[in-house]
Design a protein that fits this description.
Layout lengths: L1 H43 L8 H12 L29 H4 L3 H13 L2 H28 L2 H13 L1 H8 L4 H21 L3 H16 L3 H17 L1 H4 L2 H30 L30 E4 L2 E4 L2 H16 L3 H21 L9
Antiparallel strand pairs: 1-2
Helix pairs in contact: 1-5, 1-6, 2-4, 4-5, 5-6, 5-8, 6-13, 8-9, 8-10, 9-12
Length: 359
């Protein structure tokens, strides 16, 4: 009888696992459909010229011309010449501020398809879709609720800033960062649960992609990740987890060292600038952030960037409020609110012009 009972329980576990996997596939399919909807304009309409379009087009084309069987990663420093795309306006420091990975992936696709805009569009599609996937699995880890995970994913890929980065700025490197952050945190949650292999893959790969995509964003991310690890020191400050974090740091350092050394060398020689002084002449918070009243307008023009107020922001606010009000866990109600408030203050401070790099 005991043997039959165990067999029955095993059968129930198998069926539950199948149902669970089926729901994952369905929800991933929904995320795919949402990605198709929000990015369909890229493929159906004539290509727009965003803030950074020509910059990325010129980089991708020039990089593709240096790729060969002897040099599969292309040249480290692109030598621009003045021509129809005004390559000469960008200077030698392109690879320092914008590391190679986003342009390299697009260059490979461009070599296959011979269509520069289609290559960039496909990069946007893949990174946006993967952003949604990583947020889905991360949110499911946090809340253990697939419906919340799906909602979190849809909100994440439809937030105004994400859409702005694609349709207005045409910022291909920054779009990689939407994928990287949930990837890194998903790695940390796997470390928390003792899944070391998944941690190494997600955390290390996320950091390597991030450091080779957009350095300034990774500096901000590292500050936030450090705060997260310190807040959960009881979880992460254990011998096996510290060793895993240090080993992952070594892997990341080795993989990003070639580009990082070049950047530090130029910085030491005072040859490297992130922003020119005209962009950092504001030194107080009040004059460097959008007024709260602007949230009630349908559209806001700020710093030459049109930002559309998306209802996803309202949904996220309402949902978070409900979560805090009805969650009965005392530690969650006390500590999580303090933690999120601290994160909110730090993020807003980091977004002000006070800490933008002048050199």
């Amino acid at each position: 009888m005991k043997y039959k009972k165990n067999i029955t329980n095993l059968g129930k576990f198998d069926n539950s696992k199948k149902v669970n996997n089926k729901r994952n596939y369905i929800y991933i399919g929904i995320i795919f459909i949402v990605t198709v909807i929000i990015l369909s304009s890229l493929f159906l309409n004539d290509r727009y010229e965003g803030h950074d379009t020509i910059f990325h087009v010129s980089n991708i084309i020039k990089l593709s011309e240096t790729i060969s069987f002897d040099s599969i990663f292309g040249d480290s420093i692109i030598k621009f010449e003045i021509d129809n795309f005004n390559y000469g306006l960008f200077g030698y420091g392109v690879r320092l501020f914008y590391p190679k990975i986003p342009h390299l992936f697009a260059a490979y696709i461009y070599l296959l398809l011979k269509d520069i805009y289609l290559s960039m569009n496909l990069i946007y599609f893949v990174t946006t879709f993967l952003s949604g996937i990583f947020v889905y699995f991360l949110s499911n880890k946090i809340y253990n609720n697939k419906n919340i995970a799906l909602l979190s994913s849809i909100i994440y890929i439809t937030i105004p800033y994400h859409i702005c980065e694609i349709y207005i700025r045409d910022a291909i490197a920054e779009n990689f960062m939407f994928m990287v952050l949930p990837m890194i945190f998903l790695g940390l949650y796997n470390l928390k649960e003792g899944n070391f292999l998944k941690f190494y893959i997600l955390f290390s790969l996320g950091y390597i992609i991030g450091m080779n995509s957009h350095l300034v964003s990774m500096l901000y991310y590292t500050i936030l990740i450090g705060i997260f690890i310190l807040y959960y020191k009881d979880v992460f400050f254990k011998k096996d987890k510290i060793k895993a974090l240090l080993f992952s740091a070594v892997i990341v350092t080795v993989m990003v060292l070639p580009s990082l050394v070049t950047l530090l060398e130029h910085k030491r020689l005072d040859l490297y600038r992130v922003f020119t002084p005209i962009f950092v002449d504001v030194i107080d918070v009040k004059s460097s952030v959008i007024e709260f009243s602007s949230l009630y307008n349908q559209e806001v023009i700020y710093n030459d960037i049109m930002t559309y107020f998306n209802m996803s922001s309202v949904i996220l606010f309402v949902f978070s409020t409900i979560l805090f009000l009805f969650n009965k866990n005392d530690r969650f109600r006390k500590d999580k609110k303090i933690f999120l408030l601290l994160m909110f203050i730090i993020v807003n401070f980091m977004c002000s012009n006070i800490i933008i790099f002048s050199s």
